[in-house]
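User: Reviewer 2 asked us to show a designed sequence for the structure in our supplementary figure. I'm pasting the structure tokens here. Could you produce the per-position amino acids so we can include them in the response letter?
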């Protein structure tokens, strides 16, 4: 498994910031749903959104790891000659 950037890197700061926004928006939407549909339907909606969010996060994490591994391998690969020989 490739090394991941440090927890204080710019990438992880962005991930945390985005997560905070997602939680805030989710809270507002949940409150609106509870007021409109009642607690049971709101809870079902939250669970469905959570499952979708988990799937999206897993896919995004996999893509970031793949890109990171590509960059690492490109940096460690020997440079090819400019004339193609």
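Assistant: Here is a per-position design you can include in the supplement:
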């Amino acid at each position: 498994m490739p090394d991941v950037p440090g927890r204080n890197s710019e990438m992880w700061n962005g991930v945390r910031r985005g997560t905070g926004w997602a939680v805030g928006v989710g809270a507002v939407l949940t409150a609106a749903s509870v007021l409109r549909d009642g607690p049971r339907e709101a809870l079902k909606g939250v669970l469905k959104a959570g499952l979708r969010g988990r799937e999206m996060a897993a896919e995004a994490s996999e893509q970031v790891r793949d890109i990171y591994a590509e960059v690492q391998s490109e940096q460690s690969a020997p440079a090819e000659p400019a004339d193609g020989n």
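For the response letter, you might also mention the following. The chain has a mean pLDDT of 79. The two ends are 33 Å apart (CA to CA).
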